[in-house]
Fold:
Amino acid sequence: MKFDGLAVKLYTIKQPMNMDMNFDDYKDLVYKIVGASINVQKELNWGLLENIYTEALHYELLDLGILNEKQKYLPCFYKNRVLNTHYQMDIVVENKIIIELKSVSSLISGHRAQLFNYMRLTRKRVGLLINFGEPTVQVERYGLIDSTNECILLDKDMQPVQKRHIPFKNF
Structure:
């Protein structure tokens, strides 16, 4: 099967949910972030530059009393050396949730890979991919399973979806 140009396998989750796959503690905060994203899009409409949405969402979250850092620096290492090149995460909320913002006509696997890399490098268990490039804001929720280092798609209740797409290629 093809998924955004990558070969994928479909796996069904059959084992009972363990603590590694429990994301309930994030549900309320994610709900507030999604609501804030909707407010930003209502105010600014869709299709502007990503940086405008990043700054607007940063302030919208602060107005709600939600601590967050925008353009958070993430160093990269090679053989115990800090590289001059680094990542910049769009927004990190309460040092728990990574938000990767886009303003594109459609999300692609590369956008997801970027978020997954941030989640794996920082060991943050939840990440949101938010797209302001459509008339309705798009939100994808992902959870990191520590024991397997996999990022899985979560539904609006922060539960793993029954079928998940796992690329052969490790992002």
About this structure: The mean pLDDT is 86.
